[in-house]
Each structure stands twice: as structure tokens, then as C-alpha cells.
Amino acid sequence: MRHQTRQVLMAIALASLSLGALFAPAQAAERVRLNYRGFSRSVPVPLLVALADTGATSGVLGGLLNQAGQDANQLRSLLTRPLPADPVVLDRSLNSRPGEWVLDYLAQSIHTGRGAADRQALRAALVLSASDDKQITLLEVLQNYPTEEVVLEGDNIQAAYNRLASFLRPLSIFL
């Protein structure tokens, strides 16, 4: 019975996501404003995808990492390290008080830059990231963020990743 209930909830959630995609304008982050140690640059998402896929940095991303003294391999690891997450359980959990606290904490590192609807945008990006393969990577969250530009506070991202991993760990029993 539990398994059937989970399947029904999953079907409803995925149908809702699909219908939302049909009726809402498709928008995903095209640029990431990457902030490191006082340096800030707007980086096109394809440069982050190239870093994740090949380890290569170029253009504005390479310049920023050099200026800030950041290791490209460390950023690559953070972009691609998966966290298991069931999208239905994740959505329900993020809509709870503890989930909102986690979202507020994460929004200190991943946000709109305007301070408006950070919690909702981050929730949507996390659930969408988990919806296709039951796992989340930072790169997927950035790609699914529902604004043209998303701000990533590079100096805080490791702590935010660790907090998200701690939040998701007990939820992984539902996978």
C-alpha cells in the first residue's frame, strides 16, 4: 500500500511539474554571478558546464578563479557531487518549517541577488533538479534556477552543500 501511495504521489508531482512547464514561460538561469573573496563576475552557465564536463576553465570563469585564488577542481567537485533526493519527499520536506530554515540558510549562498522570492526559487530549482534522476547536483540547481541570473556565493558554497547533504541524509530512506 505504501509503495502505491508513493507512486501516486510521484505521478501527481511530476504531472504538476509538467503542467507548470506547459503553462509557464520556460526560464532557467543563463548566467551565474559568481562571487569569490570580493571578486564578482557574471559567468555564462555553459562555462560552468564545460568545467564540470572537462575540468577546463576559460574566459571570465578562468579569470575569476585565478583572481580569487580558487582551485578549479574544487569548484568542479562541488558542481558535480550528487546528493540523492526523491522529488516528492523533497518537495514536502522543503515545505515544512525545518525545510524553510534550510532554504533560508542555502539562500545565503544561492540567491536571486534581489532578495525577493529566494526561498521559492531555490525550492523550485532543488525539486526540478531531483525530478529526472532522483539526485541533485549544484550544477543542476544552477541550471534549473527560475531566473535569468542566479548569484552563487563561492566562499560559502561548501558549507551550504554540507547543510543540504545533512538535511537530505534522513530523507534518503525514501529512495
Short structural summary:
This protein is α+β, with helices and mostly antiparallel strands and 175 residues long. It has helices at residues 2-23, 45-54, 59-68, 72-80, 87-94, 97-106, 118-131, 138-144, 157-168, and strands at 31-36, 39-44, 83-84, 110-111, 135-136, 149-153. It is built from nine helices and six strands.
Keywords:
58% helix, globular, two-stranded antiparallel sheet, 6 strands, 4-stranded mixed beta sheet, alpha+beta, 175 residues
Provide the β-strand percentage band. Answer: 5-15%
How far apart are the first and last residues' alpha carbons, in Å? Answer: 16 Å
User: Secondary-structure element order, as H and E?
Assistant: HEEHHHEHHEHEHEH
Give the total of beta strands: 6
State Rg: 16 Å
Q: What proportion of the residues is helical, as a percent range?
A: 55-70%
Could you characterize the architecture of this molecule?
The chain is an alpha+beta fold and 175 residues long. 58% of the residues lie in helices and 13% in strands. The protein contains nine helices and six strands; from the N terminus they run H-E-E-H-H-H-E-H-H-E-H-E-H-E-H. It has helices at 2-23, 45-54, 59-68, 72-80, 87-94, 97-106, 118-131, 138-144, 157-168; strands at residues 31-36, 39-44, 83-84, 110-111, 135-136, 149-153. The strands form two sheets. A four-stranded mixed beta sheet has the order 2-1-6-4. Strands 3-5 form a two-stranded antiparallel sheet. Helix 5 (87-94) packs antiparallel against helix 7 (118-131), helix 6 (97-106) packs across helix 7 (118-131) and helix 6 (97-106) packs antiparallel against helix 9.
